[in-house]
Amino acid sequence: MNERVLTPRNRGFLFLDSHPEGCRRSVADMWRACPDPADAPQGPGPVALVIGSSAGYGLAATLAGLKRAGIRGIAVSFEKAPTERRTATAGWYRTAATADIARTAGRDLVFLNGDAFSDTMKDQVADLVERRFGGRLDHLVYSVAAPRRTDPDTGTTYASVLKPIGRAHLTKTLVFDDQGVPEVREVETGPAEPDDVEQTVAVMGGADWERWIDHLSDRGVLAEGFSTAALSYIGSPLTAAIYRQGTIGVAKAHLEATARTLDERLGKTVGGRAVTCVNGAAVTQSSTAIPGIALYTGLLRGVLGQDMLPPVRQLAALWDDLTGRSPLAPDDEDRIRLDTWELADDVQAAVADRWEAATTDTIGGLADLDWFHAEVRRLYGFSVPGVDYAAPVATDVPWPGQTP
Ligand SMILES: NC(=O)c1ccc[n+]([C@@H]2O[C@H](COP(=O)([O-])OP(=O)(O)OC[C@H]3O[C@@H](n4cnc5c(N)ncnc54)[C@H](O)[C@@H]3O)[C@@H](O)[C@H]2O)c1
């Protein structure tokens, strides 16, 4: 058993190691933060597939699905195993913790580790649905955030980028030095090259989600009334140049257009439904990579405090919609909106005032930096309340279903 004391080592918002016990507790905290349903789910539960289940919104989808809807089924993510020298990635440890929660809740959830963009993974999932889950999938939540995707048809690998379109964009941004001292800087991001948009759409648009649905449909494993949701983001005018009007925004528009195509197709074939679900800002490994988002999210928390709705509470509402317990009215572009708390006019006005006033000297009084800094560390299992970080911890935690 490889036991050692782990201290955080990071470059910016990226950490080299993850803390297994901290990751386990952060999942337990998320589980507790998901509200109980008025009546406990009965029976074996609907069969669900969550893609991107080990972090951020996909982890929230998995936990909220277990608690609110009593799902069983399959959870897919892409994580790295521990080695002699390095810990596993945080999502590996969170997956082990999620598996324990599913087991305790009496739900049969199978965790697969591999590339969701591959056809091999799609076949593996379809085989499992056939063999283990009665051949019928009731729900699919798509929550992948990835830097690259290889198209199985052509073998071409696409890389997504976060760039403005048309001209360079100067934004304020928040960084922390090695001692954790915050600094507000300006960074310029150059405009997208001609094929950056196409590449980003190929990774983060709707192509892979559509491929999943077609693949599972061809295999005949979509249940009558099957429903699917993919996660999207709109965000603030403050981040629009880099996000919604940037390369990633074009990809999100593609994802939302794909939902409309899939919705029509599923309606005709299995009486099913496809939607995108627009969520609010959250601190995740993917979101911290977006220029300006760290500052924006820290200020948003400064304005909203505890009223900032965590992913697991948003996803509880999504499951209530998917299962028909409490349907949500879509917006005029057929999207489910769980981001209204973030985009409320008064909230956005207050964040914009603070953004304007933000400098290295003033930031401490404008943003909730303690929260933001701790959230970033919690992504890797550090700064989780109740964990003894001085104690040695076993890093070779097995993937669920494997023997150590
Ligand atoms: N973070 C936010 O503020 C925010 C807000 C609204 C919507 N969203 C959306 O939520 C979705 C998930 O983003 P996140 O921020 O939770 O990301 P994240 O980085 O926290 O999680 C990404 C997940 O995708 C998995 N993954 C990555 N590549 C994969 C691959 N090739 N195969 C299988 N799994 C893979 C990872 O293992 C992880 O489970 C995205 O669509 C994002 O746009 C995020």
UniProtKB/TrEMBL annotation:
GO molecular function terms listed in the Swiss-Prot or TrEMBL record: enoyl-[acyl-carrier-protein] reductase (NADH) activity; NAD binding; trans-2-enoyl-CoA reductase (NADH) activity
Keyword annotations from UniProtKB, A to Z: Fatty acid biosynthesis, Fatty acid metabolism, Lipid biosynthesis, Lipid metabolism, NAD, Oxidoreductase
InterPro entries: Eno_Rdtase_FAD-bd_dom, Enoyl-CoA_Rdtase_cat_dom, FabV-like_NADH_b, Trans-2-enoyl-CoA_reductase
All residue ranges annotated as the Trans-2-enoyl-CoA reductase-like NAD(P)H binding domain in the record: 6-84
Example GO biological process: fatty acid biosynthetic process
Superkingdom of the source species: Bacteria
Known EC number: 1.3.1.44
Membrane-spanning intervals of the chain: none
Domain Trans-2-enoyl-CoA reductase catalytic stretches: 86-321
Record pathway: Lipid metabolism
Pfam families found in the cross-reference section: Eno-Rase_FAD_bd (PF07055), Eno-Rase_NADH_b (PF12242), Enoyl_reductase (PF12241)
Record carries keyword Lipid biosynthesis: yes
Enzyme class: oxidoreductase
Quaternary data: Monomer.
Full protein name: trans-2-enoyl-CoA reductase (NAD(+))
Enoyl reductase FAD binding domain span: 331-393
Species whose genome carries this gene: Actinacidiphila glaucinigra
Reactions performed catalytically: a 2,3-saturated acyl-CoA + NAD(+) = a (2E)-enoyl-CoA + NADH + H(+)
Gene3D superfamilies: NAD(P)-binding Rossmann-like Domain
